[in-house]
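One chain is below:
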Amino acid sequence: MNITRVAARTAVLALTGGALAACGVAAADDTVMVAVGYQSKTINTVTAGTLMRELELLEKHLDEASQMTGKTYEISWHDFASGPPLTAEMIAEKVDIGSMGDYPLSVNGAKSATLGAAKTRWVSVTGYNLDGALNQTVVPKDSEATTLEDLEGQVVSTSLGSTAHGNLVRALDGAGMSPEDIDILGQDPPVGMTSLESKQIAALAQFVPFPQKAVFDGTARLLHNGTTGVPTFHGVVANEKYIEENPEVMTAFLAAQKEATEYLQEHPVEAAEKVAAATGLPPELVYLYNGPNGAVTFDLTIKPQLVDAVEQGLPFLKNLGSLEELDVDAFVDEGPLKELYGADYAKVQAETVNASAITGHDEACDRAVDDAATASEAWPADSATTKVAATPTCLLMLVAQGGEYRSLYVPDAASGTRIFGQFATWVMDPALGTTEELLPFATVGDAEAYAAQHPGAEVLGYDEALEGV
């Protein structure tokens, strides 16, 4: 067992699974064991998991606590592929603090509510999207499907009981369909990705980052961008008894999460590189979600919109048999956050504008980049910095000037959600002017719908759009 001393009274035990007790380690009277569960591949939890760990921020803040309490803190990190097994370990009292998506978080609260020592509280949020676009549906790249209606009678893979599953059902309802109109196959994300690549399924409906990874890998394209109008998020839950007995651990954890959030916002490229190195995910993919104007807004506060989203998801989870009841008001515990933020908490809680924004000067169009609705970004090859553009059209003008680019990032013209520019479906609309006339869309269906409603507009592939500037 490898224990690394971070400071005189703080130790870190780096594990990715199993409890400390299983290793035969008995805690001394002045030693507090801190078992943290996280999902390394679910990259909108990084501020409470991967990034926090890579920056050793929890160690830093527990060391500060150690100076006051005289105790030693030993941290074990437990990596999970999804929320349900993390909840199982929390119920078994093998994990003290964990981060997961809103549906698993709800199940966690409901299942632990009557278990006494295993009861949990919802204590913070890692990241959210108010439109629901952290869950998306993709189809094989050569699929003929352009709308959800085209999936009727076909097999769609998802993680049963996940937020992605709920998002799919809600999206089907918005399209005038029901789950009975398709054949839903329950698969974990990696299995579903393999099924999609081998074309054993018609579509994959999953949570971040799996749909866009399939897009980035070149095996899929978006069919539905996840926008349903119902927020989705990932949050942190903690064992109630544990944090009551060790309040300084909760204080240190939230301080570390806040610092990780600020680092991500102030050093987005570096943060993406660190997360990519730790997870094996492409940094370009991580940056899509976690970069400026990204699909994820990172904010610790528990917003009313997110509490309402939990309430809206309960009937779905009850129908699945995943839970019976959840007293959401009793589950939410904002006390530690309010202590962390002090008088600023209400102000931060009310804010929903992404604090990480694309700004700067557009070289191609020679104008300021100051409108989040159109701001775009290019990541040059072999560069530790990105280039910005005021509009997607200006971004294509930049690329047309030459040079190699790792990836392009643009807002979906239909929803505003950040997408890969090189994999978007583009529309040329001459009525918009020379620096706005090329519009990127996440899905073929949305592009075709826009073109049908705007005389003179033409649907283009990326290469055609690039030639168009």
Observations:
- The two ends are 59 Å apart (CA to CA).
- Residues 125 and 235 are 4 Å apart (CA to CA).
